[in-house]
Automatic annotation (TrEMBL):
This is aldehyde dehydrogenase (NAD(+)). Gene3D superfamilies: Aldehyde Dehydrogenase, Chain A, domain 1, Aldehyde Dehydrogenase, Chain A, domain 2. The keyword Transcription does not apply. Pfam families: Aldedh. The active site is at E263.
Length: 510
């Protein structure tokens, strides 16, 4: 690990100049970004934020690179992405450890994030030979119609702290095989993992003589993100983060009629029917609610339980929570690591207060842990609250391990509760009853982008399209046909005849 961190510090990555083909620019002298680890509170690095002048230079370099990159055949672009996947295989342990140390998720999940990068690289390689358009039969004789997909140009990516590297790869790998160039602005809370990714792919870009500017990194806070949103040179802004951020980005980008792709907050529920297999359901609930300390966009936040099994589920959960080990996420025996920072801890404490104010009862009370091994001040006890109804705090995404329990009688009531929040990311039902499962998946069922049966709300695979509805933003990333978001569609009509027949039978004679 030390060796890997040392490699990150080598020239020219930290010098603030261009890094060959992996273009990294960040030379602002003031307001250095301090990256503190929530694991032990240590200062990991101080990173230069990008100045506006630097930003303009990055965008111009990226634009120039696009003119070359768009002409590289897509399968050749795929081959370069394949080589990147190999690099990530090589550095899986080091990068996974860095993710865990900088963000605070368990080492298992840190490694899992790197595995997601590897998986999306593999997926993108195949996709590079499948950027299919359709052909249509023309109504005119001796005419042919078809559509094709072209790259957009510069794709700007704004990412959140909780998946510091995977979200970048979902976007970047597909955007690249589609022929775009990328400018990534990672979360100001996790700049080091982003630098590491640039460093890891640098050799591949150099060896393949990829033009400088195909992969760019800019660093800084919200203000740097707004530069991307405002800039008409950015063809697509793909933004992952809070709904508050998404609303701001959407309004700004829409103001210039640009394209955006939003992946925002979730408020995910599991319905536990009286027909559920609780031996499968309980570990899924606990993993979904306390994994990554409740800081996944797909974390399980609400449990909607049929009244006849309510007491049983409650008792099993209390028992399972009693076995949780909270502590250093780099130590494999621990289930729950820290929250990202003390501001997140305040948000957790405020939610606990509001639960009581809104008539909730804490079945397992939360607390901020103190003492040796908890010096960072970011470790909290996962809490469970019984709620009388879906009150204001339940409607809100608190990015911490708090699970709300709600009771229902009929499945219709459960689905109404599940859908009765502003967010629409992930959902699931546990039932062995076919009618219930199909009802939940039908048009009258879950209104979320992700709806599962007998698995939890989190832990999506890259093969499916990932994203959600309503305040989650409507975007889709990763698998299925998500690649289309990174391309523009062009309809082509070709006349190979000797006359000029017009569509709709219109006659125009000279
Ligand atoms: P955040 O909104 O505070 O920040 C996310 C990113 O947006 C950061 O890079 C930040 O600098 C930037 N940003 C903030 N305000 C901006 C603005 N007005 N204009 C441009 N950029 C701006 O979110 P966070 O705390 O880092 O992450 C947690 C949130 O992200 C949660 O709500 C979580 O559900 C969501 N999330 C969603 C998904 C998904 O796929 N749906 C995935 C991961 C995280």
């Amino acid at each position: 690990m030390q060796q890997f961190l040392q490699k990150l510090k080598t020239q020219p990555l930290m010098s603030g100049t261009s890094t060959g083909q992996a273009f990294w620019h960040s030379s602002g002298e003031e307001h250095l970004l301090d990256s503190y680890s929530p694991v032990d509170g240590q200062l990991m690095a101080r990173v230069f934020p990008t100045t506006h002048e630097d930003y303009n230079q990055v965008v111009e370099t990226a634009r120039a690179a696009f003119l070359e990159w768009r002409n590289v055949p897509a399968p050749k672009r795929g081959e370069i992405v394949r080589q990147m996947g190999e690099q990530f295989r090589q550095y899986k342990k080091e990068l996974g450890t860095l993710v865990s140390y900088e963000m605070g998720k368990s080492l298992q999940e840190g490694m899992g994030e790197v595995q997601e990068i590897i998986d999306i690289c593999d997926f993108a390689v195949g996709q590079s030979r499948q950027l299919y358009g359709q052909t249509m039969h023309s109504e005119r004789p001796d005419h042919r119609m078809y559509e094709q997909w072209h790259p957009l140009g510069v794709v700007g990516m704004i990412s959140a702290f909780n998946f510091p590297v995977a979200v970048w790869s979902w976007n970047a790998m597909l955007a690249w095989v589609c022929g775009n160039v990328c400018i990534w602005k990672p979360s100001e809370k996790t700049p080091l993992t982003a630098l590491a990714c640039q460093q890891i792919i640098k050799d591949v870009l150099e060896q393949n003589e990829v033009p400088e500017g195909v992969s760019c990194l800019i660093t800084g806070g919200r203000e740097v993100g707004t530069w991307l949103a405002e800039d008409p040179r950015i063809a697509l802004v793909s933004a992952t983060g809070s709904t508050r951020m998404g609303k701001s980005v959407a309004q700004t980008v829409a103001g210039r009629l640009g394209r955006y792709l939003l992946e925002l907050g979730g408020n995910n529920a599991i319905i536990i029917s009286q027909h559920a297999d609780l031996n499968v359901a309980i570990p899924a609930i606990v993993f979904g609610a306390v994994g990554t300390a409740g800081q996944r966009c797909t974390s399980t936040r609400r449990l909607i339980i049929q009244e006849s099994v309510y007491e049983d589920v409650k008792q099993r959960l209390v028992k399972a929570y009693g076995q949780l080990r909270i502590g250093n996420p780099l130590e494999e025996q621990n289930h729950v690591g820290p929250l990202i920072d003390r501001a997140a801890v305040s948000g957790y404490q405020s939610a606990l207060f509001q639960i009581k104010e809104q008539g909730g009862r804490l079945l397992i009370d939360g607390e901020v842990l103190e003492g040796p091994a908890f010096e960072s001040g970011c470790y909290v006890r996962p809490a469970i609250a019984e709620m009388p109804a879906q009150t204001e705090i339940v409607q809100h995404e608190t990015f911490a391990p708090i699970l709300y329990l709600l009771k229902y009688q009929t499945l219709e009531e459960a689905i109404a509760l599940q859908n009765g929040v502003p967010q629409g990311l992930s959902s699931s039902v546990f039932t062995l009853n076919l009618r219930e499962a199909e009802r939940f998946l039908s048009a009258a069922g879950s209104d979320c982008g992700i709806a599962n049966v007998n698995i939890g709300t989190s832990g999506a695979e890259i093969g499916g399209a990932f994203g959600g509805e309503k305040e989650t933003g409507g975007g889709r990333e990763s698998g299925s046909d998500s690649w289309k978001a990174y391309m523009r569609r062009q309809t082509n009509t070709i006349n190979y005849g000797t006359t000029l027949p017009l569509a709709q039978g219109i006659k125009f004679e000279l």
